[in-house]
Specification:
alpha+beta, nine-stranded antiparallel sheet, 43 strands, binds calcium ion
């Protein structure tokens, strides 16, 4: 009886669920094809990209709407103020979610209440106190729409027709800076060229009823508002990463329910998301496991079989394999099944057919991995060489950046998470030129600063690649004397050696000129930090002279009054010095015989910094990296002094006992320096690690550690992949060959959301098309870049846009991460080459 009743409840609720939006158990509004999230993700402020928060809509599987909140700008930028969420209340009886928002800077509180009303939601803004006078006319209810999903589509506002523009070309006005709401920590995203005015976009259209994308049912959405005007803006007028913004300004002097929107996203009847067939776009070595992971809508019924089709050389297609579909189960919002076609080993060109869905083709061949690191080493890395002119064929990637050098940073906060303390810890006065720093080094990522910690890792990664794999590949011409780099022009020197040299040149200069390591060499003003274009044009190349007026150039043409010079952040951190000392020791060894003079300089700085850092840390009672396991191993590798090996031996086993997963890579790295009994003692720990690898298979359908942070977990997958490769190389009987391919499969396409390779152009049939590189404004990529991948949005959505490059958490690649990829790729290649013998 009870069962029957439950069944009846389930049936009726399913029926109404399919029709109307309802509040589900994950605390968002849902109907088939539409999810409306209300502050499942809240704003963070500052450096954090804010196109990830507030009221969001996932429309037929794509998060196309976000940023629903009270905002202080027509089209908010990344460093504009964001509201702090003061509370969030889910009312299941009313079917509503209420969120309190606060701007501390203005002592301004507001609330939104979102309530399901049939197929629509009502978004109502409530005020207990009127909008503060200095925000009247500025504070409004905003909702943002993803440009790449709406451009070229139609809209109709109060019956007037229009089309969303592909490129931003609406109109703007300028207003006095005094009227501009404050930006994060008082930073300014714009250079007003001395006008004391800021640019404010004008609306494209205004009205009370708007229907967007009548020509695209999967994007169609209707918004109406009786008690205020709706204004449609193009956020790209101010910033290339801006979205289309719909906005109603809050009325002056009113309290209570002040603005009410009815938002109705269209749902395609009985919509079921197309299966996403995850497989490796690079293809498969014949002997490796070949398992496609198929991501299914929960309302989809899994098929019983899939087939592997072969494209023949006479133009015909043959079914070569038919296999059963195996259920894995639910993981967050989707259901996962697998198709294992490992039995197919014959080299050839294939595709997977699952029901009506057919994948693009891919290779099965011994040589599929041969070129996986070439784009990264030959193209991505040299393009990120700072202080050089970099050219490729007819194209110049960038001129020589920062010719005027770097100034001593004054005490300051920073928009890219750095800080200069009250003491410079140097002999330089604030804003004095520190000579000799504009040499060598690598751009951090999609931005152009030198992160010292990352650059240290980069040199270490290159040394590791050099010592383990000795790649003599020479495709890059590097002249330090001419400050000139040309891609695809061999110059007789292995490129990896030149990259070690280039990284070391900057870091040694820091140690010599500053006396210790800078935390970063970075932009002094936010208005050139978000630069997109030629790195050489970020600054004017002239020394900053505060005695000149802004934008004035001195009579001799050598200095200017424009405060655009980069700064060196020099507050001393002995841990960083220690890290640098370790790296310098290794670099000195690696550079021996290639650049003896630099090798000698690196050695001098290594000894001095190690000595000074040790004393400083003792004085501050710090241990930090000094006592670090990995550091002792690196020091032993670099100096072969027994004390470091003794330190390592004294710690390694307790550290492994404490946490195998976080220590195993270091333990494996030590094997070349150790005897057989070390390896035997390590065995049970490797067995424990293998058991952990097995548990991953039950945690998610991909059998990998999957990160859920603000920066997607690609780096975690890469380091897991690298560790597994090493574990397999040293203990092939414990860590089976099969598991080493999991990380590669993921990176090259076997992952949620879509099945594109996260690495740009490496022999993949379908690499991602857009990345957050420094050419992101062109909706392009720099070959060899590795995207962080799948950004998790609470409570249950993985995302990687491939038509919108601007979210760094999913699409940026970093110099440290991409050199880590070269290690992973090199290790994988070396294992596969044994397999091919
Ligand atoms: Ca940076
Ligand atoms: Ca070369
Ligand atoms: Ca300058």
């Amino acid at each position: 009886m009870k069962k029957l009743y439950l069944l009846f409840m389930l049936m009726t609720s399913c029926f109404s669920y399919a029709q109307d939006l309802h509040l589900n158990e994950r605390e968002y509004f849902e109907r088939q094809g539409v999810n409306v999230l209300v502050f499942s993700n809240s704003f963070n402020g500052g450096f954090n990209d804010e196109k990830n928060s507030g009221i969001e809509i996932i429309h037929h599987g794509v998060r196309t709407v976000q940023g629903g909140a009270i905002r202080l700008n027509n089209t908010p930028e990344q460093w504009d103020l964001v509201p702090k969420m003061t509370r969030r209340k889910v009312d299941r009886e009313q079917g509503s979610i209420e969120v309190g928002m606060r701007y501390d800077d203005y002592d301004f509180d507001s609330r939104v209440v979102v309530t399901a009303k049939g197929k629509a939601v009502e978004i109502a803004v409530w005020l207990d106190k009127p909008v503060p006078e200095n925000l009247a006319g500025e504070a409004g209810l905003n909702l943002e729409f993803l440009p790449s999903q709406y451009w070229l589509k139609t809209y109709s506002i109060d019956g007037r027709l229009g089309r969303f523009p592909r490129y931003a070309t609406s109109q703007t006005v300028t207003r006095p800076n005094s009227e501009k709401p404050r930006q994060f920590k008082g930073f300014k995203t714009y250079d007003d060229r001395g006008t004391d005015q800021f640019v404010d976009p004008l609306p494209i259209e205004t009205g009370h009823n708007i229907i967007m994308a009548t020509d695209a049912p999967e994007r169609m959405i209707r918004v109406s508002c009786e008690d205020a005007e709706l204004c449609l803006y193009d956020g790209r007028m101010l910033a290339q990463n801006g979205w289309f913004v719909l906005r109603s300004v809050l009325p002056r002097g009113k309290t209570g329910k002040v603005v009410t929107w009815i938002v109705e996203p269209h749902a395609i009847p009985n919509w079921i998301r197309e299966p996403n067939i995850g497989f490796s776009q690079v293809g498969y070595q014949p002997e490796q496991p070949k398992v496609a992971v198929i991501e299914l809508d929960k309302k989809d019924s899994p098929l019983s079989q899939a087939t592997l089709m072969r494209l023949n050389e006479d133009g015909t297609t043959t079914e070569v394999f038919r296999g059963d579909i195996k259920e894995w189960g639910d993981y967050f919002k989707y259901n996962y099944v697998k198709f294992d076609f490992s039995a197919v080993k014959e080299p050839g060109v294939y595709y997977i057919q699952y029901g009506n869905v057919k994948t693009n083709d891919f290779l099965i061949d011994e040589h599929v991995y041969d070129k996986i690191t070439d784009a990264t080493t030959d193209v991505w890395v040299p393009i990120h060489m700072n202080h050089m002119y970099v050219t490729e064929g007819y194209r110049t990637w960038h001129g020589e950046p920062f010719k005027e050098g770097y100034l001593q940073a004054p005490e300051s906060d920073h928009f890219d998470l750095h800080r200069q303390g009250a003491s410079a810890d140097t002999k330089y006065k604030p804003l004095e030129l520190i000579p000799g720093l504009n040499v060598g080094g690598f751009f951090d990522a999609g931005d152009f600063d030198i992160e010292t910690g990352s650059n240290i890792s980069v040199v270490q990664n290159f040394i590791r690649i050099w010592e383990l794999f000795k790649p003599v590949r020479d495709e890059t011409f590097v002249s330090q004397q001419q400050r000139y780099v040309e891609l695809h022009r061999p110059d007789g020197t292995p490129d990896i050696m030149q990259f070690i040299e280039h990284g070391t040149l900057n870091l040694v200069a820091q140690a010599e000129q500053i006396g210790h390591m800078a935390s970063t060499l970075s932009n002094s003003v936010l208005d050139n930090y978000h630069h997109l274009g030629d790195a050489a044009s970020i600054t004017d190349g002239l020394h900053y002279d505060p005695s000149l007026k802004p934008y004035e150039v001195s009579a001799d043409g050598k200095s200017s009054g424009t405060p655009d010079d980069m700064w060196a952040f020099t507050t001393r951190n002995p841990n960083l010095d220690f890290q640098a000392a370790t790296m310098f020791a290794a670099a000195s060894r690696a550079l021996q015989g290639y650049n003896d003079e630099l090798a000698q300089r690196a050695l001098v700085q290594s000894k001095r910094l190690m000595d000074e850092a040790t004393k400083l840390m003792a004085k501050n009672k710090q241990t930090g990296r000094r006592g670090d396991l990995g550091t002792n191993l690196q020091l032993y590798a670099a100096t072969r002094e027994k004390q470091y090996l003794d330190n390592f031996n004294a710690q390694i086993w307790t550290s492994l006992d404490r946490n195998v997963n976080s220590t195993i890579q270091t333990a494996l790295d030590a094997i070349p320096f150790m005897n057989e009994s070390y390896r035997q003692r390590l065995r049970p720990y490797v067995e424990k690690y293998a058991a952990y690898i097995d548990t991953l298979g039950t945690q998610n359908p991909y059998g990998l550690p999957i990160g859920l942070g603000n920066w997607a977990g690609g780096g975690q997958v890469l380091s897991f992949g690298t560790t597994v490769c090493y574990a397999h190389i040293y203990f092939p009987d414990i860590v089976r060959r099969d598991v080493i391919f999991r990380a590669a499969d993921w990176i090259y396409g076997c992952h949620p959301y879509h099945n594109y390779s996260f690495v740009a152009a490496v022999g993949a049939a379908r690499p991602k098309e857009v990345f957050y590189g420094n050419n992101r404004a062109d909706f392009s990529f720099i070959p060899g870049n590795v995207a962080p991948g799948l950004l998790f949005r609470r409570p249950d959505h993985f995302e990687n846009y491939d038509d919108w490059p601007f979210l760094w958490g999913q699409n940026e690649g970093t110099i440290a991460g991409n050199t880590q990829y070269i290690i992973f790729g090199s290790a994988l290649k070396s294992i596969v080459s044994v397999l091919n013998e």
